[in-house]
Design goal:
314 residues; alpha/beta; Spore Coat Polysaccharide Biosynthesis Protein SpsA, Chain A; 9-stranded mixed beta sheet; 13 helices; 17% strand
Length: 314
């Protein structure tokens, strides 16, 4: 049954999300503008997630673990609404989330709306640090049009998702960036700061590093598919990774002044960025920049593995 001219479907992906999915679902069903249906796509949970989600009036779709793109496409395929809202199972939405987003679809040129993200587990230092680096601790407070958007806080016209071919199921990650990039080539995607979703972030270095590898592999695949675009690579980690490797190799192959210059540059850049982050956030979580600067800089070179996968598929 349509309310205000729209039928709203919410798509929620889960996999071993027992610790957080209840709060996520509660936030969806407590919206001031209730969704017309909620679709949970589960990727093979074994921790009690299914028992929790079955307590709610949801449409459960089970997915064999073929990736985020495949799971999101299943959610869209099973959605009956003309507007599809996406949120992650470790996130929860403010009660006015749907209410703040839906009116913007009166404009036929707007195909998508995203919103402000806030970190809820601020006690986790790693999560705080990544939110700082990713620019999600101080997000814009003004409306604007964007070129890409994350599915942790996103609403799209269902017909537009289908029109652009849906989520690319071959991507290791960044399937949301790629989809919204395609949508923004034809329509507008609006950033609405009053549409707020709280997210968990990566609580440990292990989880963060695994996500980092998958993210950069996905970025490489996007480069193979769409060409180099700075939109897909917000951080300059691969550049630092190259310099770090060059500095290590130069220890054995070049005069001593070459590695000295390279390591000096990396060290100065490290102190500059650490000081800049501390001045901005006054938070000792910036100490994790040491890890970010070294290990993740090398890990970011997975972008070239993704590029190889993408070109090979082409």
């Amino acid at each position: 049954m349509k309310i205000d001219g729209h039928m709203v479907s919410v798509v929620l992906l889960t996999k071993n999300s027992a610790a957080s999915v209840c709060e996520s679902l509660e936030s969806i069903f407590k919206q001031t503008r209730r969704p017309d249906e909620v679709i949970v796509v589960d990727g093979g949970s074994t921790d009690g997630t299914l028992e929790i989600v079955r307590q709610y009036p949801i449409k459960l779709v089970q997915e064999p673990g073929l990736g985020f793109g495949h799971a999101r496409n299943l959610g869209v395929k099973n959605a009956e609404g003309d507007i599809v809202f996406f949120i992650d199972s470790d996130c929860y939405a403010e009660p006015s989330w749907i209410e703040k987003i839906l009116p913007h679809f009166v404009d036929s040129e707007i195909a998508g709306v995203t919103g402000l993200m806030r970190l809820w587990n601020t006690d986790d230092t790693v999560a705080r640090f990544l939110a700082c680096v990713g620019g999600r601790m101080e997000m814009p407070k003004q409306r604007s049009f964007v070129k890409i958007a994350p599915t942790m806080n996103l609403a799209l016209r269902r017909m537009v998702i289908l029109e652009v071919g849906g989520f690319d199921e071959t991507l290791v990650r960044c399937e949301d960036s790629e989809l919204t990039y395609k949508v923004a080539q034809r329509y507008k995607i609006l950033y609405e700061p009053e549409a707020i979703v709280w997210f968990r972030g990566s609580p440990t270095l292990r989880v963060a590093s695994r996500k980092c590898i998958r993210h950069f592999t996905g970025v490489g695949q996007l480069f193979a598919k769409h060409g180099f675009n700075p939109l897909f690579l917000r951080l300059n980690l691969p550049i630092r990774g190259f310099i770090l490797i060059a500095a290590l190799v130069s220890l054995f192959l070049t005069p001593r002044y070459v590695p000295a210059i390279l390591f000096a540059f990396l060290l100065m850049e490290f102190f500059y960025r650490t000081a800049k982050m501390y001045r901005r956030y006054h938070d000792w979580c910036v100490i994790y920049y040491l890890v970010f600067f070294t290990f993740w800089s090398v890990v970011s070179l997975a972008v070239f593995y993704g590029l190889y996968r993408g070109l090979r598929r082409k």
